[in-house]
Amino acid sequence: MKIDLNCDLGESFGRYTLGDDAAIMPYITSANIACGFHAGDASVMQATVRLAKRHGVAVGAHPGWPDLQGFGRREMSVSAEEAEALVLYQIGALAAFARAEGVDLRHVKPHGALYNQAVKDRLLAQAIARAVRRFDRELVLVGLAGSALVEAGLGLGLRVANEGFPDRAYNPDGTLMSRSRPGALIESPEQVASHAVRLATEGIRFGENQVRVETLCLHGDNPSASSNAKKLREALEQNGIEVSAL
């Protein structure tokens, strides 16, 4: 059994640093790099791509809503055409740095509210998928396991990856529990590692379907992110699960 281990990175601004990307990078196989709308800037994108290259980690674009103040976690409502353009713009920005460093762009994973809205909003999900296809049909579209975003990608002939979250709690319907609720964030490295193994081996119950998880996400802004990443990878490998990029 194989599974990808990804992390949302590059979510800093110039000298302001959020999380410890350098400590996390050795343990993951894919990096979702912020594209400047919800976090990140030109210098941070460049530095994060270079860091991923140094560790042999696959590079992906992590587009979000244009919401620096809210870190991309506030919902927005725009036309499908505008949403498509916003995502395409951000993929292009990150791809420029990847190309300059001789790195292939491997995947696209929306961030925050954009990601969560696309779980059930089919028009938004289709707009995101169209942006990915317009840029490069070979890119992998990453979305919550079983979600409308994954379905939209499949419908357009894209490669997709169903994602699970070891450091987040789930609602009974398979969606992520709101961060505002107690217990939504799992911070104990041991619990995160145990949850990761369960997600990798059992998948997710989303609605009426049991969905296999192909990539696991750790949040780089979690206070225990580097410890979680280390213990999680060790737990997966100890259970015979190979960790490899999409």
Instruction: Tell me the fraction of residues in β-strands, as a range.
Output: 15-25%
Strands side by side in the biggest sheet: 1-2-3-4-5-6-9
Q: Give the fraction of residues assigned to helices.
A: 25-40%
Q: List low-confidence stretches.
A: none
Q: How many strand segments?
A: 10
Please state the average pLDDT score: 93
Class in CATH?
Alpha Beta
List the helices and strands and how they pair.
Layout: E1 2-9, H1 21-24, E2 30-34, H2 42-55, E3 58-62, H3 80-100, E4 105-108, H4 112-117, H5 122-135, E5 140-144, H6 148-155, E6 159-164, H7 189-202, E7 204-206, E8 209-211, E9 215-219, H8 225-238, E10 242-243
Parallel strand pairs: 1-2, 1-9, 1-10, 2-3, 3-4, 4-5, 5-6, 6-9
Antiparallel strand pairs: 7-8
